[in-house]
């Protein structure tokens, strides 16, 4: 069986060392369910057509040209050969400009991932780069022309090879300040924070992408199957609205500490003294035992 087809081939260069490499797509949406647009009346597929916005006439492919709007309705026309001439020439080399600690990587800038593997010869240099980055805990920042654009790429050790993620440009990433500008300046502490830590502790797991469910794809596939078989799927019941409760009470219930009315002193602070995390079964018993010695002493 033939192996995967490379999306790009070239060289990776660090210092005076270079080796031939190949890029392979790491993520693809080709397996997703795709739809065609049909004419409801005839059941036939419809085709898209470019129409002149003023005359209403169809525009053939040879008459279609790119344009940049400079004013309302005024465009600068860019011919295909002009666009091609403006694209940077590619020397097919990933030039590593810097090595940065993996802890400094801002994943907000990640665009698309590609597997980076050695191409035919030069495996020793490739392995040297991979193992060196693993040992130092760093990633490489490199630049090259990929798919007709000068791109910055972040390269990290990944399994037996490397993974190269194209990065969004700074102007493409929106500032987080506007997204968070209405966040209140509050400090959560005390019982609420301890309860949250307890809940997080009980839910700890490990990253396993095989457990990620694409419920949309599964639901659409089941709908298509039902349509083919002439079945109708049962209608879903509307989810019941949750009862209103305050944050502290919701945390107590999530942690399994019961209701506020029946067990008011059941807190994570009592269970968290000494070592270890709060346990659901001990706080109530501890509250009862606290008063017993005093009654005997009296």
TrEMBL record:
Keyword vocabulary terms for this entry: DNA damage, DNA recombination, DNA repair, DNA-binding
Pfam families assigned: Ku
GO molecular-function terms, A-Z: double-stranded DNA binding
Record flagged with keyword DNA-binding: yes
Region (Disordered): 234-298
Domain Ku: 56-185
Domain of life: Bacteria
One example of a Gene Ontology biological process annotation: DNA recombination
Record's compositionally biased regions (Low complexity): 268-298
Oligomeric and partner information: Homodimer. Interacts with LigD.
Family: Belongs to the prokaryotic Ku family.
Function: With LigD forms a non-homologous end joining (NHEJ) DNA repair enzyme, which repairs dsDNA breaks with reduced fidelity. Binds linear dsDNA with 5'- and 3'- overhangs but not closed circular dsDNA nor ssDNA. Recruits and stimulates the ligase activity of LigD.
Protein name: Non-homologous end joining protein Ku
